[in-house]
Amino acid sequence: MRHLFDPAGQRALAAAMRRQPLLAFDFDGTLVPMAEGPDDMLVADPIADGMRQLARLCPVAIITGLAVDDVADKADAMNGLVLGTGSRAAVFVGDDVDDEPVYARAPSSWLTVRIGRDDPSTLARFFVNDHDEVETMLAP
Questions:
Q1: What are residue 50's phi and psi, to 5 degrees?
Q2: What is the average pLDDT score of the chain?
Q3: What percent of the chain has pLDDT over 70?
Q4: Where are the beta strands (DSSP E) in the chain?
Q5: 107 CB-near residues (< 8 Å, 6+ apart)
Q6: CB 113 within 8 A of CB 124
Q7: Tell me: the pLDDT tens digits for 27-80?
């Protein structure tokens, strides 16, 4: 797993963006830090602004699931959204083991990113260190 902001990661991100991908993000732990309950999960202004900017360029989706059954369906949801939007590629950003089904089923045209590098068995191709780097990734 390589850092998204190293030269190889930047080239991969640029190549994915040229294909006008579906940009998909897990919610809890990715777009917002983990919290006690849903009322405590607020998207920071820079992340919301970045999402709005990106939505002008490409389809954007938030894919989340807190129940075990939802986790198994994340990969199906991603595939369905890619097909439904007519995208030729996808960028998926997640943060934990619940996102591994997406990483496992991602074709080579998808860019997969995990927050943190604490799991050496992850199938994500790239990582960012923390939420600050997600904000950097979303900056226009």
A1: -65, -40
A2: 89
A3: 94
A4: 2-3, 22-25, 60-62, 90-94, 110-115, 126-128
A5: none
A6: yes
A7: 888 888 877 777 778 888 999 999 999 999 999 999 876 555 565 688 999 999
CA neighbor of 31 nearest in space, from 49, 9, 5, 57: 49
Please give the single-letter amino acid code of residue 99: D
User: Residue 63: its pLDDT value, please?
Assistant: 87
Count of CB atoms within 10 A of residue 65's CB?
Answer: 18
Instruction: Please give the structure tokens belonging to residue 33.
Output: 């830090």
The pLDDT of residue 84: 95
Nearest to residue 6, comparing CAs of 106, 127, 98? Answer: 127
Q: Which amino acid is at 51?
A: M
At position 83, the amino acid (one-letter code) is L
Helix (H) or strand (E) holding 81: helix 68-85
Q: Return the amino acid letter for 70.
A: D
| pTM of the shown model | 0.91
Please state, in angstroms and rounded to a whole number, the distance separating the CA atoms of residues 101 and 114: 12
